[in-house]
Amino acid sequence: MSHRRSSFQSNDLFPREIDIEVCLKTLKIYQKMEGDVNCVVWDASLVLAKYLETICHQRPDFLSGMKVLELGSGLGVVGLTAATLGAQVTLTDLPEALPLLRLNINENKSKISSMGGYAIAESLVWGDTSSEILKEEFNMILLADCVYYEEAIDPLIQTLQCLNDTVTKKPVIYLTQELRDSEIQKKLWNAFYEKVSENFYIEKIPEDQQHANYRSSDIVLLKLNKK
Ligand SMILES: C[S@@+](CC[C@H](N)C(=O)[O-])C[C@H]1O[C@@H](n2cnc3c(N)ncnc32)[C@H](O)[C@@H]1O
Question: Which GO terms describe its cellular component (predicted)?
């Protein structure tokens, strides 16, 4: 897939509101009318964001002060939710996705800081092992709907490996993925799963532990720990 240049004008955009019930805050997320995959909110991101909220409902300090990295953030729903729940979050994506991602961070900045959280957006292209971000230590890595084209699978796994190799404390990874019906998407997911299971223990989070209204048999939620 080519890395397309992205730009936006304010009249291309429309807001979507996402409630974070556990802290009574509402995120405002700008999407584009038309554009690449990083311009809309994907269902897998809602499932992951709402799962974080579900855990915080049981353990209010679950994300407080945690250093969190999100890969392939898109519009930022997952990372911004984590930041509003008190985490220090670095949201990352391709360079062309950053303007809209940063707009969404700015839009929600005061809510995030009122909860003690923090959010910043940086470029991180999967497989770029020279990135300074890979030298930082994170407690948690989040990713939603990032397994969807073949060329990205090895670089994505390489980034997950690097993040786990440079730290003393291995970060836990939470990942959601929509399992699409097409043969090519099934093959891609199976290839990713097989490769990632070589180096990570994989735990499937059952639907009954997820948010009651934001879960789906089509969207898998996994917790990964480095072997
Ligand atoms: C299907 S979208 C999911 C976006 C967001 N996580 C969500 O669920 O709404 C996949 C995201 O991965 C990003 N992406 C694709 N290839 C990438 C790469 N090689 N390096 C970094 N990010 C990439 C895209 O720009 C996009 O934001």
Answer: cytosol; protein-containing complex
